[in-house]
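Protein entry
_____________
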Amino acid sequence: MGVLFSLFVWGGCVRMPIPDPSAPADYLYSEGFNRDSLPYDIRWWRLFEDPQLDRLEEIALKQNLDLAEAASRVEQARYNRKVVMGAYLPEFDFGVEASVERAEPTGIVQEYTLTREISWELPLFGALRAAHQSAQVQTLQSEWAFRGVVLSLTAEVATTYFTLLAYERGLYVAEQTYYLRCETAALTDSLVRYGMESRVAADQAQSLVLSAAADREQYKRLVAQTSLSLATLLGEESSEFSVAGWGAKLWLDHLPEEVPVGLPSELLERRPDLMQSLFSLEQAAAGVGLARAARLPSFSLTLGGGVASDVLKGLFTGDPWIWSVSGTLLQPVFAFGKLKAQEKIAREKYYETMFSYRQNFLQALSEVDQALVAITTYRKQVARTRELVARNESVLRKTRALYENGMSDYLDVIDAERSYYASELQLVELLSDHYIAYVDLFKALGGGW
């Protein structure tokens, strides 16, 4: 009998396979990177060794409302697991009933009943296992979704932080350039008054001043807007806080010395989006089992008992006991193909989720390689741009000296000024992008916990 019962409960469940995507032996652009695995028990942003960034990340983890919302969804999934499993367990009910009726010729008739009832719809043909699997993977899916929110949040904080550094430094460069151009414009005006320079040169000098002044306002706007975005990520009300001097950190070289990138196959076990996609696939597989079980017989058992009497005190005297047992076996026979179609839908949902899982893995590999090639090329591009800034600064200094001694035309000064200014801003942007490329790599690798 026990073997037959186990067959009813666990047999008949459809087991859909959970494939492992084939992973390459190594990343395409991993040459020069550490092949060790990124530790799980670290906060990856600490590899930048920037106390200011560390402080901002910790604030975000404590106060961000999106993170709190994701944590609430995890709790909901855990409670829902109990709800789902409770549907396949016996249900105990207690009832009290009293009625008084008057009719001729019997007169007043009283009836009092105390009952207990046990009802149980037996989970036949693997329905229990499928329901348990579905509830379990839903909980795991929500937990990995929470980790995904943590990873996205911390990466967004770091990206916004390094972007803010670039804007603050750009504002500093624009302001310094503005003051230098004002000095040059004043010198040019003096030369015009003494007849040593044309009015066109004065207008050109003033044009450069206005250009730098416009850039100042642009970077002020970008700094303010990015600061507001950062405050939102931190879970704080919009407020203006001082970021003066932050941009200088871009020159302190806080880039991680080594990033252990590991192997592509490790992404399947550490990236939150891939783990969430995997559990979605398992949930879809469980859905096929549930849809299959719905087409097979169902059996419900009800056991009731209690006491009944026509007088209230009779409930506790004499022999008022009553009991009943009933069982129902229900086999779906004809539903116009609805149940069969539902099973086919569940199977197609499984295939859809499986293809999505494989595609997500390909996307994950691509994101890691994109971050690796970005870091490698930014490193070389930053080095060349530093040299370019140094050369342009030398050209500008020499050109100004020649102009002040009447040995060069002012157009040469304008060209040198514009080249130096543009290369300075370009270097600021590249430095920020280089940091952000590391952030992208940590995110692509799944971060650390």
